[in-house]
Design brief:
With about 325 residues, the chain is mainly α. It contains 13 helices and no strands.
């Protein structure tokens, strides 16, 4: 097995290559707009002055390689471009939408880890028995329900029928922390599928780890069952779950469009949806790059955690 420094260097190089690939892909997809991008973005019955302004803002008169180099250079300096519709810097859209999205993501992750790990450990301790079958059936059933359908169901029951919670975040602005009741339903929807997948991963990992030779040897040496379970088996079971957590964190930060749209939460998902509707390419480009880089960083972090928790597994570079 290669040394940890060599493995880390390979992962960092791979992460850098993935980041470059994200930037290139976003630019190429923008270039693939059919016809004249300025005319397409100007909408129906475009004003020649607006077409000229868009063409100037996107530097469409310059060759594509020059525009790519200029845009990438701006990204390195933290300049994500300027909105075509408002003239505001794209970074200001990120600042406006990041707070609500981060609040939703952090709240969901804080609840996800104890719930998912706890359910998984509980099911593994009762493997093959009624409790395990009930947990497995419940997690499979909840996982099969799409987020949008579950969100509508929760609004119907808890907001419209019972009146316990607000149906949306309309009127609360971006300061959702001051109105925690507006977070309950969105967080429940965000938790539904990740809790199920994490619990099933932890359950399977715990069962495998408890049957591994090193845990069997620990039992033969008289190590208490609780210590074997939580000191030896759980870290090994949590190693693959760390990668699932990274994908979940990535989804929470970058893919909550459906939940934010359903509950009218002014986060990054809503910003991206509005930019797509307005065909505001610089905002879409900037958000796509930020989401892509976040994905690379989160997956790199997950690999580091998995390797730390279970070095025996030899996480692939």
């Amino acid at each position: 097995m290669s040394g940890p420094r060599s493995w880390l260097a390979r992962r960092l190089l791979l992460g850098g290559a993935q980041t470059v690939a994200v930037v290139l892909l976003v630019f190429v997809l923008t270039e693939a707009l059919p016809g004249d991008a300025a005319v397409a973005l100007a909408g129906e019955q475009p004003d020649p002055e607006r077409i000229a302004a868009i063409r100037d803002a996107m530097e469409l008169d310059r060759p594509a390689p020059e525009r790519l180099a200029s845009w990438a250079g701006g990204l390195l300096q933290g300049d994500l471009g300027t909105s075509l519709t408002s003239g505001r810097p794209v970074t200001s859209y990120l600042v406006d939408g990041f707070g609500p999205t981060l609040l939703l993501a952090v709240t969901a992750l804080v609840l996800l880890i104890p719930l998912g790990v706890g359910l998984g450990v509980f099911a593994a301790r009762h493997a093959g028995r009624l409790a395990d079958r009930c947990v497995s059936a419940a997690t499979l059933a909840v996982y099969a329900v799409p987020e949008f359908a579950l969100g509508v169901l929760l609004i119907t029951v808890f907001a419209l029928r019972l009146g316990w919670l607000p149906p949306t975040a309309v009127g609360y602005g971006t300061d959702l922390l001051a109105h925690p009741t507006a977070l309950v339903l969105p967080v429940l929807v965000l938790l539904s599928r990740p809790v199920c997948s994490l619990a099933r991963l932890v359950r399977a990992g715990m069962i495998d780890a408890l049957a591994a030779p090193y845990t069997e040897q620990a039992r033969r040496y008289g190590v208490p069952a609780a210590r074997v379970r939580y000191t030896h088996a759980l870290p090994a079971a949590f190693a693959p779950a760390a990668q699932q957590l990274a994908r979940t964190a990535d989804w929470l930060l970058c893919g909550v469009i459906v939940v934010e749209a359903l509950y009218v939460i002014p986060g990054l998902g809503t910003v991206l949806m509005n930019a797509v509707a307005e065909r505001d390419v610089p905002v879409v480009q900037g958000l796509a790059v930020v989401f892509g880089v976040l994905t690379v960083l989160l997956n790199l972090g997950a690999d580091l955690i998995a390797r730390r928790l279970a070095p025996r597994a030899g996480v692939a570079a």
